[in-house]
Each structure stands twice: as C-alpha cells, then as structure tokens.
Amino acid sequence: MGNIIEVKNLTKKFGNFTAVDNASFDVKKGDIFAFLGPNGAGKTTIIKILTTLLNPTSGELRINGHDPVNEEHEARSSFGIVFQDPSLDEELTAYENMKLHSVLYRIPKDIRETRIEELLKFVELWDRRNDFVKHFSGGMKRRLEIARGLLHHPKILFLDEPTLGLDPQTRNHIWDYMLNLNKKEGITLFFTTHYIEEAEKVAQEVAIIDQGRIVAQGTPAELKQKNNAATLEDAFLNLTGRKIREEEAGAIDHLRMRRRRFHR
Amino acid sequence: MEIEIIYILWLRQLKRYFRSKSRIIGSLGQPLLFLLAFGFGFGSIYQKAGEGNYIQFLAPGIIAMSILFTAVFSGIEIIWDKQFGFLKETLVAPVSRLEIMLGRTLGGATVAVFQGLIVLVISLFAGFKIQSTNMLLTALLFMALIAVLFTALGTAIASVLEDMQGFQLIINFLIMPIFFLSGALFPIEGLPKTIAIITKINPLAYGIDGLRGALINSIHFGFTTDFLVLGSIVVVLMVIGSYLFSKIQI
Q1: Does the pLDDT at position A248 exceed 70?
Q2: Least packed by Cβ within 10 Å: which of A15, A41, B62, B145?
Q3: What is the pLDDT of residue A264?
Q4: How many CB pairs below 8 A link A and B?
Q5: What is the pLDDT of residue A162?
Q6: Which domain holds residue A161?
Q7: pLDDT for A223
Q8: Closest to A88 (Cβ–Cβ): which among B5, B86, B249?
Q9: Mean pLDDT of chain A, nearest integer
Q10: CATH number of A70's domain
Q11: Partner-chain residue, chosen from B87, B88, B163, that has the shortest CB–CB distance to A251
Q12: Option in B84, B90, B162 nearest A104 (CB)
C-alpha cells in the first residue's frame, strides 16, 4: 500500500525562529501513526500545515495525493481533525454541531440524518443529541469531536493530543473506538500525545520530532532496539534528552490561560 | 458560491444570539444608560437652547450605537474564535473562505439589527415618537447598512490581530471616537472645524443621519449622500474584510 501522507524537506519559519526544520516523513495508508515530541518541538505546527491552516515556508507535501497549499479543497475533503483546543460550538446542541459539519462537507441530504445518527450512537451520545455542548464533560466533547471528524468519511483522521486531560476510562474507551475504526474502515490515524506508553501500545509507526527536526522514525520495536531501551519512553528520552523544555509563552498560550481563568 | 453554506453559518449566529438571553439583556445596559442618563440629563438644557426634544434627537443615535457595538464585537469575536472556537472547524472544511466570511458577517449584522430594533422599542417607552411609519423600511435599510459596515470592519481588524491585547486599543482609539464623533449625541451643525472634518469622514455619521432622516424627519447630508457613502464603504470593507479573512493563518 502507498503513502497517504508525504512530507519532504518541510520548513516553517516564524520570523527568525525555525519551528520546523527540513522535516521529512511518510505515513502509510491505513497505518496508526504516532507523532511524538517534547513541548514546542513543532508537532502542532506540522499538523496545522498538513491541515491547510498554516502555509509552509518551503517543502513538499501530499495529503491523499493532494498538495494542501494549492489543492486545499481536495486536501480538506480527505481528512478529519480533532484539535488540541476544542472547536465545537458550545451554544449549539450535539446534533446541530453534526448537522453544520454535514452541510460544510456537502454530505448529500438523503444520507445526512442516517449518518449523524450512526455516528452519535457510535460514540454513545445519541441520547444526549439535543443537549447543548456547553453542558458536556471533557470526555463527551472529545467523543463528539471525533464523531464529527468522521462524519464525512475521511481517509485520514488527525488527532492532536486527543486524550489530554481525560481519565483512563475515557481514554481507553476512545482508543477502542478509534482502533476499531482503523481496522474496519481502514482510516489512517495520525496522532500526537505526551503519553508515550499510549503510543507504544497502539501505534504501528512512530516519528519523533525535536526542535523542529525529525530525529527518528520506525516501528516502536525498531526504535527501542536502536536505542537500547526497554520501553518507548526510554527511547524517547534517549533521543530527546532529559532536559525540561522552556517554552516561551506566545499569544496563544496567553489566550489559553485567560480562557481557563474565564471558564473556572 | 453555495447559498446553503452561507445560510447555515448565518443561522448559527442567529441561534447563538437568541439562545443567550443574558447576553441580549446585558448588551442593552449601555444603550439604556445612555438613553436615560443623557436623554433626561441634558433634556432641559437642550430644550432651553431651542433645539426641541432631546430624547427625540438622541434615540436614533443610541439605536446606531447599539448596532455599532454589537456589529464590531461580532466581528472581533474572530480573534477568540481562531484559537478556541468554531472558526477552525470552518477553516479546515472544503468551503471557500468567502462563503465563511459572508455567512458570519451577514449573521453578525442581522443580530446587530435585532439589537437596534430592541433599543428602538425601548426608546418608544422613554418617550421617543416615530414621525412617519411609512419611513420605517428606510430606517431598517440604514440600520442594516450600519450593521454590515461595522461587522465587516470588525472582521477585517480581527483577521489581522493576534490576541486580545490589541482589542482595547481598537475600542478606545477607533470605536469610541467613531461613536462620540458621529453626531449621535449632539447635532453636527455648527461644530468647531476639526471636529466637523472628523465627523465628515466618519461613516457612522452618515448612518445616523439617514436614520434620523427616516425616524424623525431631520436630515443633514441628505438620503442620497448617506446611502451612497455608506453603500460604497460597505463594498470596500467587504472586499478588504474577505481578503484579510482569506489570509488568516492560525
């Protein structure tokens, strides 16, 4: 099977700061791909570039055979995404959020309703379909976002720290869904996480990024072997060092902090 | 261009507005205060100066003010929305940015017009009298023009701002002056030269003028001038707004 994502010599600069430095990697179709790296390594930046939210400074990209810079429409139709920060409309109900997505992705009218029902049942939110999203717990919101991301039957599902801040029950629950989906529908899963043991458990392929550079790529077993490590987490620490990363807070972090204060 | 996409994004803004009763009531506080404090506070001075009933003069200005603020805020919301909101969901969808911008702007503008209508009804209770009811449609037209103009302005500004810190700057150095120097609170005849020039380049002045013309039959620039000035600024701002919006990177 071919590659569904191809990244060649990708570089992204913000002024003098190089967030992504000549990164190259491929993701095979149908794979579960874990993208790991310390804070500020460039994971989210790469996801934003792949999902057309940010333009690269240089490099070549293919998403399902399409260039996200020049063929953004085709590229956008190929993937679904669960963002690190929620992107649901909290003033709408779960059903309305799904409905809006189905219109934006031009899902034919006659199959909209059945598909929304199917997916909401799949993430066990069908009984809560007419409740406002603002009353949902963190785990329920994640599940709804995943259901929404799958509504248009994407070839790739991007998940930026999908299990962050969730309890082990919800985490397992969500992973069961996604693994099942990957097996049944052959959807490629591309995810980032800080829980390395989670990546070790589910990922078929892992890429590790540090300071904008891809420092390793391979199966979890290969990475452990190469780095003489007992676990993937040890391999990760060997590759990226044990120093805690100082990340300068940007505009987004200030906003994020304000939002937390605001919502408390 | 797909109407269904623009429609559903427009509908979303309306649903959000009508569902948050506390926000509707909250945003009525400021116009109400202005109407009552200024209206009754300056009423007798205004009368003594031989200008007539101040509430009658003031109400169209306060209606325009509530439209101005609601419209600008709904545009500015994008700053917040870029990171934490629904905007990202629309930006990764296979739809054109123009459709998203139009849906949002028209939705925000419709909400702003509703807000203006509520203030109009309230001002009737404060003693405001509409001169001729068959000019109500003209009044509605000017309310819509003000609403679209300032929603597009808010969208354009929010598309280039990175965080909320620039927001205070915009409110204090752009929106407040636009309001205070628009003739909303005082007649624009016989002003000192500098202020007169500023009001002349202030689009809100033309909106309020048209609104006053329609509601109380008193006009300074004339309907045609008001309409042409507002109309052309709306077109320019919509073009600039959609361009800047299409360039948003997150």
Answers
A1: no
A2: A15
A3: 41
A4: 82
A5: 87
A6: 3-263
A7: 94
A8: B86
A9: 90
A10: 3.40.50.300
A11: B163
A12: B90
For the whole model, what pTM was predicted? 0.89
Residue A139 class from Cβ within 10 Å (0-12 exposed, 13-18 middle, 19+ buried)?
Answer: middle
Q: Does B21 touch chain A (CB under 8 A)?
A: no
- Residue B87 CA, distance from chain mean position: 22
Question: How many CB atoms sit inside 10 A of residue B29's CB?
Answer: 9
| Gyration radius (Cα) of chain A, Å | 18
Of the two residues A35 and A242, the one the predictor is more confident about is A35
Q: Of A54, A74, A85, which is closest to B249 when you measure between CB atoms?
A: A54
Residue A53 contacts B, CB cutoff 8 Å: yes
**Predicted ipTM of the assembly:** 0.88
Q: Look at chain A and count its residues.
A: 264
B76/B157 Cα distance (integer angstroms)? 7
Closest approach of B76 to chain A, Cα-based (Å): 14
Other Cβ atoms less than 10 A from the Cβ of B52: the count is 12
**Unique residue bearing structure tokens 């799904």:** A98
Residue B143 has pLDDT above 90, yes or no: yes
Residue A225, chain B, CB below 8 Å: the answer is no
Measured CA to CA, the distance from residue B43 to residue B58 in angstroms comes to 10
- The model's pLDDT over B58-114, given as tens digits with 9 standing for 90+, comes to 999 999 999 999 999 998 888 888 877 889 999 999 999 999 999 999 999 999 999
For chain A, how many structural domains are there in total? 1
